Amino acid sequence: MKCTRTRNNGRLPDAEVAAFCEQLAYMVKAGISLQEGLMLLAEDNQSAEGKRIVAALLDTVELGGTLSYALKQTKAFPQYMIKMVGIGEESGKLEAVLDSLCAYYERQEAIAKNIRGAVTYPLVMIAMMVAVILVVIVQVLPVFAGVFEQLGSEMSGFVLGIMQFGEAVSRYVVVIVIVVAAVIVLYFVLRRTQGGKRFLSGVYERLFRKTSLAVASGRFASAMALMLGSGMDVDQSLDMALELIDNGGTRKKILEVKERSAQGIAFSEAIVDVGLFSGLYGRMIAVGFKTGTMPTVMQRIAQHYEEEADRRMGSILAALEPTLVAVLALIVGLILLCVMVPLMGVMSAIG
């Protein structure tokens, strides 16, 4: 946690949480006490915010509080991490839990970056495309309109309609800017609430259904690997995994798995029956149960789903760029063609 920066809601980013877990795990492995480890982290931290957070942790621990309680008091760490650290302290597996949390939050950060890249790039391309079209409509077409007027000719109805649209945009540009700004503010507000996150997740799920399902399944498998590896049973793991998943469809499937498991159906069968994993992964889970390697199996499944999500996002981006460029060229070319063809006809008649 060398360069700590908190989000607007005060919580540390996933990358910083992963770094904190990694450093603390190294110290626990080396036999360093928790208090001494936190003191070393405070000395090593170069940011004022990072020193404040670690100092708060150290104060609570020195007063006899557990690490999970200290993490909760700072309000800078995710609830999931706090619960898992508490389980690690109770079970005596704090070192293993910290290692697993480090890997988990590194994967979450990688997934989040891929999602941001998949969403941000198209938005930038669309914004540039809209800007180019508006410049043509608002700045270029009026010049041609003046030329046509001087030559005593008229522009086509299609171009006149586009010009009227451009005039309306120019007239209400302040209102448009306010509306766009309000939408952006609303987006960031929604991101800060649990209900808002689920709403945005629902929108993303509808736009990129298969990619969204792959991401959600990967997160579920990753969380199950961590919790099962910490000594929790399947039912407890499902309850905690349910708190981490925003995808509505995946949440319903997890609840169905819980219901089927309560009815005595094997977890490996239930997870395939509801469509959460494929039949191949179901067989891998069944083997994992028999051999006692469930955490490893779940981690491999998570990796497979993350790779699938990466491939799908890459395919979307690869197809989107030429599509947007083609649409922009078509719209601008059509507008200019509707202007230039009549203009060339008038010039030929004059000649």
Relevant terms:
351 residues; mainly alpha; Receptor-associated Protein; 2 domains; 15 helices; elongated
Low-confidence stretches: none
End-to-end separation: 75 Å
Order of helices and strands: HHHHHHHHHHHHHHH
Strand content: under 5%
The name CATH uses for the topology of the largest domain is Receptor-associated Protein
Output the radius of gyration: 28 Å
CATH architecture of the largest domain: Up-down Bundle
Strand tally, please? Answer: 0
Q: How many individual domains? A: 2
At the first level of CATH, the class of the largest domain is Mainly Alpha
Helical stretch tally:
15
Largest sheet: none
Can you give the mean pLDDT? 78
How much helix, percentage-wise, in residues? over 70%
